[in-house]
Amino acid sequence: MRLPHLVYGLYERRLAASLPRDVVPRHIGVILDGNRRWARSVGESASHGHRRGADKIVDLLEWSEEAGVQVVTLWMLSTDNLSRASDELSQLLGIIQDAVADLAARGRWRLQVVGALDLLPPDAAATLCDAQRLTADVQGLHVNIAVGYGGRREIADAVRAMLRAHAENGTALEDLAESFDVEHIAEHLYTKGQPDPDLVIRTSGEQRLGGFLLWQSVHTEFYFCEAYWPDFRRVDFLRALRSYAQRERRLGR
Question: Which UniProt keywords apply (predicted)?
Fold first, then answer.
């Protein structure tokens, strides 16, 4: 009965050892998808699936540290998710708050909230902001917590912030139109100052981004995994890194 486990462990170690240490993505984005479908597959409630998914996050961050990744962005709740039934949304927000508070209490990773906090209930927004404040001086892996996040909303917020900044400086609209450049938006994104994602992983077999890091992902490599997020294993993570390492990245050149 132990043979499959031993074989799996051997395969996992060989896979890890085969990865080139000089071809590691600096920034990985992860779409944590499939919690509800996983729960249905085992006859459990959606909230049970969300909690199992939240429990998987620490594993992912530890694997990322081991691999030498510098930034991980976790898409935990989209702007579209905010339209879910109130009972499920309330439970999901509570699970996210607990998970983020636990990550902050570990004092191991620097957390940054990315998303439209004004769309969230005040208590949820406060919990996320507290986690960010408590870990502001941590020197470990940088973890973006994407809650209430949508790529279109991020770009709209960046444009609004840019226009406000230029208005405060007295820049005429005509002058701004003449000098406008893509970097004006990049400077006001939620992730400003961070490297763009090199790799985005989506679980559950869905092969679309849904607006995740819409601006930042112009040169990103994508990896779609069949496993639901609660079933995502280290070997799945290593396979994603292997796939990334095998690709020729031209970056538009």
Answer: Magnesium, Metal-binding, Transferase
Domains in the chain and their CATH numbers? Answer: 24-151+196-245 (3.40.1180.10)
Burial 13-42 (b: 16+ CB within 10 A, else e): eebbeebeeeebbebbbbbbbbbbbbbeee
| Series of mean pLDDT values for 10-residue runs along the chain (253 residues) | 70 92 95 97 96 98 98 97 91 97 98 97 97 97 98 96 88 81 92 97 95 96 98 97 90 64
73 is in an annotated binding site: no
Task: Say which amino acid occupies 32.
Answer: L
pTM, entire model: 0.93
Answer yes or no: is 50 a known binding residue.
yes
Rounded CA separation 55/57 (Å): 6
Active site residues: 33, 81
> Residue 26, annotated ligand binder?
no
Task: Give the three-class secondary structure for 162.
Answer: helix
